[in-house]
Amino acid sequence: MSEQQKTILLVEDEEAHAALITRAFEDHHASWQLQHVKTLKEAKSILAGQQPDLMLLDNRLPDGEGLELLPGTVENRIFPIIMMTAYGDEKVAVNALKFGALDYVVKSDSMFAEMPHMAERALREWEYVTQNRHAEMIIQMERKQAQTYLDIAGVMFCVLDSKGDIKLMNRKGAEILCCDENETIGKNWFELFISDDIREEIKGVFDQLMNGEIDPVEYYENEVITKTGKRRIIAFHNTILRDEQGKPSGVLFSGEDITEQKEAEAALRQFEHIVSSSTDMMAMLDSGFTYLSANPAYMKAFNKTQDEMIGHTVAELFGEQFFNEIIRPKVERCLAGEEVNYQTWFDFPNSKTLYMDIHYYPYLVAENKVAGYIANARDITDQKRSEQRTLRQEVQAKRILETALDAFIQIDADGLIREWNPHAELIFGWKKEEVLGHALTESIIPQGNRQQHEEGIKHFLATGEGAVLNKVIEIEALHSDGHLLPIELSIVVEKDNGDTYFNAFLRDITDKNRACDELLKSHFDLKDSLAGTVGAISKAVEARDPYTAGHQQRVAEIACAIAEEMGLDEGQIEGIRMGASIHDIGKIQTPAELLSKPTQLTKFEFQLIKEHTTIGYDILKDIKFPWPVADIAHQHHERVDGSGYPQGLKGDEICLEARIVAVADVVEAISSHRPYRAALGIDFALDEIKAKRGIFYDPEAVDACLKAYEDKRFSV
């Protein structure tokens, strides 16, 4: 503890007790500055203006309970608090620790004399807790920063493993799929987001990709089903992830929701079938929006006779909503003396939907008074369609330009270069005049691929077939300075007057591959960071209990050996390792003297120890692990017959991981030294789980544990 003077706030209404505590600090060390108050009100007044290094807090005070001064949770503590009481009330003790007290003591003369030592221990422990909290904040900041890079992306990013299970999804992906980005982790993409009618087919293609049976397709469009059941069309860009042996281990894809675009295209195609030409229409109406007259074209358009139209209102013909929202505001301007022109779509009774050019002219009577208006409507559907077609073509042309590969190279049937655009010069370094008329094999094709290139041309000319035609592939090309660079290549054959030309569109994907590598590295860095954090937490817990230091790590090793013997997959085993490594994290709130007590615990003390399962669960439950880490901490003292704690769960109500850790915990605890007894040995431990097999402990986990030791696959 630092020699700098420490301030202690003593909240104690008993003068005699306060005097004993004050004398103990005076006798112990001169660097303590003790401030004594007797009531909650006085304590609150001091705390409002300054923060002590330590508070010694009596529970029963004249104006209330000392519990009122506790922060409410362990996480909210800003300085250590030792709660004192003259009565060994178990409920008060539990609540004190739960609501943020660092320690809880029962008053006695010996306790008063020991108080300076207790204060020193509390301050040392608080310094350690503060440092550990800062380290955890740094780790969380780095993790959030990495996730932010993905979350700010404007498209979906997702990583699947070789089974199709989701390993990563960014915020945009969760938004498109109407789900929480964390709830999908570990779940199967095809089961969650692919409809039943196409799931088998798409999963089959994915499996072929993972087995290396087919070449990957960089871009495709496919339908997905969101969590809310809506169908969306996604444009996917895929990159195959590979392991150290180069075998496919998963896929990273980006996806853009193009549903609205596709629906607009479909609606436009449908409209083109139903739209047709029509003649001009004219009608006269009064200021009350009632038809006075209408020409035949107008009535024909609405499938009305003269009697059915004259004397009726516009609202009756078009409907109240359309009239009030579209027509009425414009007609009222006309009735005010203004000529009004607008264009809009109309649904006619003859099932035609036409785009109309509408003019409203005020018609005047005596003294230039506006008595009504004349409506003149001209069908300009063809013009509108032409504009839409032109706009669509412009959008399509823009999309082609935006997504076109950067370089264009054309070769003839002899393999000689005929075209070489400026982007080809930029990517490969050769000027156009240097390569025109020369064989492509003399420039960008690496030495090892030249024979295959020449044979591919000959094969196409003989059969009309080409393995790389009309698809996008990734290959390496040669730069003029001799270095290889990754490119995307698409080849289209062109026939012109009997001559054959091969048009190649190429793109340098060096930056794209680097980005994918960095994204993958970020994923593994996050995973390593998580493992490091768990390890640090485990050491933090065991640092408070020197007699059982290493207990959690040994339990983790035994539990993993059991899980391997049971045939669990690597993901579950990793989750068990993580959970077992911090299964006793709740003991971080257990008084240190109880953890190292060399004699049998009292009933009250054991009750405090038992709280570590619930405390551990509360600490871990809001952390988004891909495994049931919080449940392991909560349930590792449950027993299959329901006799365990804290919930008295039975059988399969206890998660499999917790049942495995329970066996490993017992074996390690019995076979190792404890403060209150010597180690009983591994044989004793194995006999215990064998005797309680199916009663306390999961039979399969017990059998796997016994087998692991029997085969000498594991030893303590």
TrEMBL record:
GO terms for biological process: phosphorelay signal transduction system. Keywords: Phosphoprotein. Residues 526-716 form the HD-GYP domain. SMART domains: HDc (SM00471), PAC (SM00086), PAS (SM00091), REC (SM00448). This is PAS domain S-box-containing protein/HDIG domain-containing protein. Residues 218-270, 338-392, 471-521 form the PAC domain. The modification 4-aspartylphosphate is found at residue 58. The keyword ATP-binding does not apply. PANTHER family: CYCLIC DI-GMP PHOSPHODIESTERASE TM_0186, CYCLIC DI-GMP PHOSPHODIESTERASE TM_0186-RELATED. Residues 142-213, 393-464 form the PAS domain. PROSITE patterns: HD_GYP, PAC, PAS, RESPONSE_REGULATORY. It holds the Pfam family PAS_9. Residues 7-122 form the Response regulatory domain. One of its GO terms (molecular function) is phosphoric diester hydrolase activity.
